[in-house]
Each structure stands twice: as C-alpha cells, then as structure tokens.
Amino acid sequence: MSDRPQFLTVPTTSEAQSKDPANQKCGRKKTVSFSSMPSEKKISSASDCISFMQAGCELKKVRPNSRIYNRFFTLDADLQALRWEPSKKDPDKAKLDISAVKEIRLGKNTETFRNNGLADQISEDCAFSIIHGENYDSLDLVANSADVANIWVSGLRYLVSRSKQCLDLIEGNQNTPRFAWLSSVFEAADVDGNGIMLEDTAVELIKQLNLALKESKIRLKFKEIQKSKEKLTTRVTKEEFFEAYTELCTRPEVYFLLVQISKNKEYLDANDLMLFLEAEQGVAQITEEMCLDIIRRYEFSEEGQLKGFLAIDGFTRYLLSPECDIFDPAHKKVVQDMTQPLSHYYINSSHNTYLIEDQIRGPADINGYVRALKMSCRSIELDVCDGPDKEPVICNRNSMASPLSFQCVIEVINKLAFVSSEYPLILCLGNHCSIQQQKILVKQMKKTFGSKLYTEAPLPSEAYLPSPEKLKKKIILKGKKLPLGEDLLEGEVTDEDEEAEISRRLSKECLGGPKRSWLCKELSDLVSLCKSVQFTDFESAMKNQNYWEICSFSEAEASRIANECPEDFVNYNKRFLSRIYPSAMRIDSSNLNPQDFWNCGCQIVAMNYQTPGPMMDLHTGWFLQNGGCGYVLRPSVMREEVSYFSANTKGIVPGVSPQVLHVKIISGQNFPKPKGACAKGDVIDPYVCLEIHGIPADCTEQRTKTVQQNSDNPIFDESFEFEINLPELAMIRFVVLDDDYIGDEFIGQCAIPLECLQTGYRHIPLRSFVGDILEHVTLFVHIAITNRSGGGKAQKRSLTARIGMRTRDYTMLRNTSLKIIDDIFKLAVHPLREATDMRENMQNAILSVKELCGLPPITSLKQCILSLSSRLVNSDNVPSVALCMKDNFPYLEPLGTLTDVQKKVLAAYDQMIQESKFLIETADSVHHKIVQCQKAGMELHEELHNLGTREGLKGRKLSKAIESFAWNITVLKGQGDLLRNAKNDAVENMKQVHLACLSCGLSKTGTGSTDAKSKRSLEAIEEKEMGDENGRL
Known about the structure:
The structure is a single chain. The protein is α+β, with helices and mostly antiparallel strands. The strands form nine sheets. The chain has a nine-stranded mixed beta sheet. Strands 4-3-2-1-7-6-5 form a seven-stranded antiparallel beta sheet. About 40% of the residues lie in helices and about 20% in strands. The protein starts with 12 loop residues before the first helix and ends with a helix. A hairpin with a 7-residue loop joins β13 and β14.
C-alpha cells in the first residue's frame, strides 16, 4: 500500500456493517486504520463531518435491557433530524429532532451504559450518547471505531450549537480562517500574481510550514491531485495548494479536540483557550492576557494574532510545543528537599565507568567518564593499577589493553564533576596499586581536586551522613581504611567486595578466605564518609556499623536479601549507604533491573552506561526528575526512623493513598522505520506498549492494537487504567514497536516517573534505542490521575446502590501484644475510621455530581460546574438557580419551580457542598486525635525492648511486636497526612466551584455587589482555614 496521508474517511455501508464492537474485548479492539478506509472524502472540517453523517453508517443502539441492536443512522439533508432504520416504529417516529438534543456525551457516561450487561465488552472510545428532551433521555450508541464516534460527536455538537441559518461552514472550506491564511501565504509566494506556481515552489512552501513532512510525501500528494483531475501540467493552483496542505497537515484527532473545546467553532478564542488550560491542562492562575500571548506566539495567520483566535494549525503547533510536553517543567529544576542525610536519596551511579564496550574485551576509554558526568552521574568507578614510569593507570583488568593515565582521568573528572550537577560526586576507588604508586595517586588527587576533596573525619556524635546540600561541590572517596587507633604507615586490608566475588568465580582458590592487599596511610586518610566494609547480617550491622561505612552487595546477594528480608533491607538503608553492582557473569555488560533494588531503598545501584536497553531507559528516566541533579529523595515511608514498608507488599501501602493513572493513547507522529529493518520496505505496523514499573503490586503491562501500514499519523484511540499503590516509586514507560511476524522491532520509547507527568493533552517526545531524542517523533496522549474511588471500571449497579453497598477499605492497626502500647493505639481506631469516612464521602459526592452530569471521573470540577449550569436553566435559557453563600460556602438556591431532573442534579450538588463543608470543619479535631495517639506511641518507642521483656516477648515475637509498632505509627502518620491533604483539596475545590459558578452567571442578577461579596466570603474561608492550619495542623 502506498504511504499516503492518513485522514478519517467515509466508509462504505458494507465496511461499516462488518465490525461488531459488542464482540470486541477491552484492550484488544479491531483496528481500522485511516489508510485502509476509502479515500472519497477526508475529515478536516465541520462540513466533512456533516457530509459523513448525511451519507450514514451503521451504529449499535444500546438499550438498558442488555440488548444491542444494529441500526443504520443518517442525518437528514435539511440537517433537522437524525433517522435510523430498520425500526418497528413509524418512519416518521424513528427519528430524533436536532432541536430536541441537549448535549452529546463521548464515552460510556449514562445510566444505560452503566447498567447494560454487555457494557464491559464495549470500547469506551467508541461509545457516545445523545441526551435529548426535557427529561434528559439518552440515545446510546456505539460506532465501529473511535474515529467514526468522533465524527458523529463533532458533527452533532456543531449542529446543536448553531441554528440552520448560521451553518456557514457547511457550504465548504473557503470561508474558514485557515483558507484565508493559506490564501495569503500562496499569494505572497506567487510573485507573478497569476494564481499558479511551480510544483517545486509549492513543495518548498509546505515544507516551510510543516518541518516534519518529507519532500517525497508532498510530491506524491500533488501527483495524486493532478491525476484525479487528469492534469498534464505540474503547476499548482491555489485550490490545489490548499487541498494538498489540508490533507497532509490536518491531524483529525487534533481537529476533533479543537471543535470540542471551542464549543464547535473551527478556532479557539482567548476564553476557549483559558478554559482548556484551566480545566483540562491543569494550568493554575491563567489570565486572558496569557492566552492572548500564546495565540500571538503560535497562530500562523496575522489576522488570528491580531483578533485573538487560534486556528487548527496554530493549535497543532501549540500542542507540539514544549509547553505541552508530558514532562512537568517544575522537575527540570531541583524541587526536592536536599537537606536530608545522604542515605535518604537514590544516587545516579555507574559501573565500570571507564568502559564503553563489554567488560571482557572492552578497553578503558576516557569518554566513559565524559558521558557519565554529562548525564549527572554522581557515583563513578576508578579501577587503578600500577602503570609504567611509576604512574598509576586506569584499565580494564580483564583486558589490559589501552590503559588510561590516572592523572588524565582525574583532570577530566575535576573539569566536569559539577557541570551537570553541583551535588557531591562519589569516586568508588578500586585500588590495585603498590604502596609506592598509591602515594603517587594520593598526591595527584590532592593536587588536582584541592579543596573539593572531602577529607573531614566523621563525627561520632552524629547518627546520619551529611546532606547533599552540605556536601555541595565536594568529591567523596569510597574505599578501604586502615584500622582506627593504630598508628600505621601501611597495613593489610581485605580486597574490594566486587573484586573478591570476581576472584571467587574466576579462580578456585577461595578456601583461604577474602583476598587481602596493602594500603598506605595517606590513601586511607583520604577516605572519610564512604569507608568500604563487608556486610555480615542486619542484626550485626544495626548494632555495630558506623553511619559512614558503606557495604557493597553483588546482584545475586542483594536479590536474595530483597526477597527474604525486604523490611530489614529498607530499615538498614535508612541509615547506611548500599551499593549494588551487576553480576560478574554479565560478561556482555548487560544491566540489572534497578527498580528491584530501589524498592528496597538501595541508593547506589551501579549501571553499565555503555549498554542501552530497557533497564538503562528506566535508570535515565528516573534521574530526569529533581532537575536531573543525580539525587532523588526516597518516599517518606522509606526514610522515617519509625515506619514500616515492605517492597513485596501485595496491596495498599500503609499511610499512602493509591491513585489511578488514566492514559489514553491517541495517535503517533512520524514514526521512523526500525533501524536495520528491511523486510517490509518503508511500511511499518506500529503499536504502543505501556509498562508500569514500581513496587511489585504496581508492575503491569498493556498494549494498544496494531495500526496497519501507517507511520505518519497512526490513530490508536485506546484508553487504559492503572492502579498505583506507591506513586512516588512508580514509572511509566511508553514503547512503540513495529508488529512483525519474525519479531517486533523497536521504534522509540520514553520513560517518565509518575511524579513528573503533566495531566491533560500532551505530546511525548520519543527516544531512540541509545537514548537520543528522535526529531519530530512523538506520541499524542491524554493523561489524568485520580484517587482510587474516582477511577476503575463502570459498575453495573445504579450509582446510589454502588455508593451505598461498596465495601469501604479501612487501614487496620496491628496488635503488638504489648498492652500499654495497644491501649494507646485503640484510641486511634475511631478517629481513623472517621478520617476515612470523611474523605470517601466527599470523593463519592463529587463523583455523584460528575456522573449525573454525564462526565467521567477524570473531569475537573470546573468542567463539571460548566456542564451542571447548562442543565439548571429554564425554557428561556435563564438560570433557574442562583449562587448563595451560606457560612462562606457556595450553595445554589432555586429561583422557581425545578424539573425532576434539575432537582436531582441540585440535590447531588448540595450533597457535595455538605460533605466538603463537614470535612473542612471537622478535619482539624480528628487530625488532632490521630496525632496525639501517634505522639503517645512515639514516647514509648525507646522502651519497646524493655516492655517486650516484661511481657515475656523475645526473639521473633519481639521483632514482630516492633514491626507492628512501626506499622501502626506509619498508618497514623499517613492517615493524618491524607486527612490534612483532603482538607486542603476541599478548600481548593470550594474555591474552584465558587469561581466556576460566578463565571457561569449563576450569581444573583441586579446586585452589583454580589460578586464582590461572594469573593470576600471565599477569602474568609481561606483565611479561616489558614488560621486553623497554623494553629492546629
């Protein structure tokens, strides 16, 4: 198949009838790529949508009785009614007047869909509903693809929003802002003024307007146009230029989005853009002037820039800009607390830094250090051996070829150490030098690094390592030290742990114990905060290990400990640094999975930077956060002295609120042919794989359908949900692959920490296999994050039944078998239930309002109020309710008689305000009770062993009691934090609801001071809550 531009097209009736969405399973929908549809008419305007609807297609009609009927739907030629057949009704009754339509909903957002037994088999992206009549009845439909659903939704919304007299765009495209702009572009390039230009000129012009387009693609399009018109000349008219540009540069999914958010116009004004940024993109404190500035920067046409509107091409350019990147720009700077002990951070670390090939044959190369330091690596390795001419060298001890001068390496390190990050750099020194050359390397390091070299003796009075902030621009040497208290000029020490393991594996002579080597006092004195010691067991370490001592673990040993003692490993890593290095058996320099060890709190997980692939993608993506400084703060539950966390938890982490990540993969742009692929020519069949990495309970993988033979703009339109139990440790990796019978081939990927995701409509720049950004290659997605009660699949019971009957999860406290302790914790049981109930009740009340408005859980409250206000109007389109501030909360009062539907909506709104009000007013007292229990428990923390002895607990039973105590403290702190955050959210929600009501014109008319009074009331809420928070929270 030719590589033609991909636009939505009108399918034939036979094609429409051949797909049955009722038989399709979620996540494995049948694909209908744009390129496989007939090329009669491309969808790039409202008139195209109307033409498609008038031609008609088969849709599935969904009924509440779990039945689905095939019906052929068409739009009347006069645009006044929608009709379907076959039907048992009279033909004049098997129709729906456009004038009766209230709204159009995309997705399964009505009671009919929620209660239909086959709803789970219907794709969310193919479903839509037409709400009509005074009782807001629903006509629920399913298209054969998400593309067709988008056409009907866009076309119907356009019709509903305009009277027939205003349907100026139905006549064609030549009155649109886009055509006016392209006309001016064409005329400016038409120097002769003849209305035609050379094909070469037209091709160059389109390339200038869209840099991502290939010249061959543009020329092919002109040839198709000329062939369709049976032209012999290659000169291009204005109309042909417009047609080629429109088909090549219109992305249907962006057009549908623009029509949706512009209230069915073909451009956005400043108000449309403001609402989109606030409600959808999550941009705070947006102003009209900021929106006009965006329009001036991204709109192509001068008219649009002057009049303040953003047409389809400018909107596309804006969505592709860095402002709509998926990565939160806040995390491009250091945003985390850098004053915690060094052991509380993950540290970007390299293994065998001097290698750029595999560890057996690869020579030492200075570029290994340059690459690592430019990527903000904060722990690098130097294997130093005796060199010729009494000069120490760095080399691969498996292959002594091409050694590097130690002096040259440390000069490069000194130059680049703090270019990408100003936080401390750890040098892991593998010392294999004679005493004589050790003294030389000491002199070289002192001279080269000078005051950067940290040599201050650790203070025995301290319990933790200094912070990255305190160690800024310091170089810390990790290595062996001579025994304290012995005034030796030199002495024997055990060899490095990694070297010992390699020696054991590569030789049979391991009966004599650890290999020993000589160390001079001068080199020993340079080691301060990272003294290498051998790990024995956790009990000995917690009693005897000093905070400035660091243990190295082989991959196999660390994996065994992580599986057998995950809680002990986490507790150990709160105080001490752990270094994990890859197995010596990884002779190809492949990488371990760093997530396995991050889950246990291990800070220095050494990676083979020279080996690209999924594991290195995770590592690179993880350390993009926090300004890419090489240090990432661990979750609080893994840092606090008294807390419980196990990496192997199967469900909810105590004290952490699970979240639901909603991802819609919409489309891809400009996918390249996989490197090295040759079997299919230039054709690819892409699909997207979504991987969630984190604690084992969160790890999962899903994929989209395959889109056949489309690399330019494949449309996926598939939605996914992932429950995340520990968001702070979660990452999502998007991988694009070419579906092939022989083996799926890699196209591009992007790995991002969940904490760095921006919500809304975003483009994801993809990276190559080696990690380089692929120019113009992106994924277009929609991201939303909700709490657990606001996500999940639609249930089959009614909304009221679902909320009333759902089992509520309470985080339970554990019995410690220590009576005095358990009596304290029993006092917290009721406040904890109260806290959970208040949070869940508020969330359910908000969800109820959203569902009654036909909106999904991911919808913002501002969008919700805008939808709600459209229902609370009378027959004259005048608001039937008015904003009334009671006790500083935004209630709505009826202004007359309400319909039953309006009463139901208003009751749900009142319940949302009531639950929010109750939480705001009650949270402080409940929080105080929880905190008091936590404090009372902590006062007895130091006495746990004595209390256990009195109760006769010892050994495993005493350890279990201490573990249960830590669990309970973690629950109390976490639930207290969740309640405090819920209160802050409730205050912010009331502010958003209040402002949305004002912007919708729901304030009482005729009183000029009403808005000002309402704003003062809102300020009163904020001032009161701030005062309460300072005094109590």
